[in-house]
Amino acid sequence: MRKVISYTLVFVLVFSFGTLGLTYAGSSAQNKLDDVNDQLSSVKSQLHEGKKLENSLNKEIQNLEGKINASQAEIDSLNGNIAATQNKITEALAQLDQLEKNMDVQNNNLNGRLRTMYKNGSAGFIDVLLGSTSVTDLMTNLDRVQRIYDSDKQLMEQLQEEHNLIDAQKKNLLNLQSQLVASKEEAAQKKEDLTENQSAVADKKAQVASNNDALEDMEQSFLAEANRLKAEILASQSTGTTYKGGTMQWPAPGVTKITSPFGYRIHPILKVKKLHTGVDIGAPSGTTIVAANAGTVIKAGWNNSYGNMIMIDHGGGIVTLYAHNSSLLVKAGDVVSRGQAISKSGSTGQSTGPHLHFEVRVNGNYVDPQSGWI
Ligand SMILES: [Zn+2]
């Protein structure tokens, strides 16, 4: 949509430049200036929106950057945990290995002793018995054999118990490790999604930024063209004429209410702070509007902002403008006298209700009509 609008503007721009070779009479230069100013204000408002969009996309990119960094930190932290867990697993495996060796040794000891005892059989037992000097000695000898065997067996059981414990720890560690790896994969996927998202937003931002650049170029061209036309209008106005009118005639006889004075205000339709370039006089629809002074009509026609409007050149660089009329009673080129009816008031163009918007321009600059003009 944005693209379509800017292409339309490019077309308008090219079209308007395409006709620049023509020389204008005063009134057609004024029409041209009004058109250029309309286009300029359209470009400005598009540029305003474009810059807002660009800023919000920039913020989104930064926001995604933060999230990507957070994902990377999470991945780093998980990598640390995975490495630490891997160390613990390696350690547990080494311990298990060592324990298994010890158990083999102990098992051999035990088997060896059992084998010896078995091989000696009852003879061994009788030897012990016969070798004993007394019943007490015999009991002592038997007890010694038994204790050695018990001690071997107990040691073996301890080793087995320790092995079971470490094996359980190892299983827990492996379990933890697979959870950590799964979490890491999830974080990596999240980071990838965020990165893709960020790159899409960055593409969009680049598009908007280049569109804004084009709008800025257009703004400059329109400004230059507007200045050129203003100079042209001034040149055509100021040839040998001087303003002789003195204080002007009130342009809406019978209506005294000023609903909005000249100066900076929040625009009632655009909702942005803008110079109100004239005074609004609360004339009901159909009120007769008169020329504030004698002069030549340089524009009588339609403008998107001013609606049905009239501009009168009074000489000496003084121009008055009457906007939002319901109907026009004069045409460009007409010579009008002070107080002559020129239009009926209304609410055409950018207007919130019936009124006369009255402007005084001196050498192309807006001045406050209430500063001694009316
Ligand atoms: Zn106004």
UniProtKB/TrEMBL annotation:
Record has Cell wall biogenesis/degradation as a keyword: no
Keywords: Coiled coil, Signal
Domain annotation Peptidoglycan hydrolase PcsB coiled-coil: ranges: 97-166
Alphabetical list of SUPFAM superfamilies matching this protein: Duplicated hybrid motif
GO molecular function: metalloendopeptidase activity
Limits of the M23ase beta-sheet core domain: 275-369
Lineage: superkingdom: Bacteria
Stretch list, region Disordered: 187-206
Coiled coil regions, renumbered to chain: 47-109
Protein name: Peptidoglycan DD-metalloendopeptidase family protein
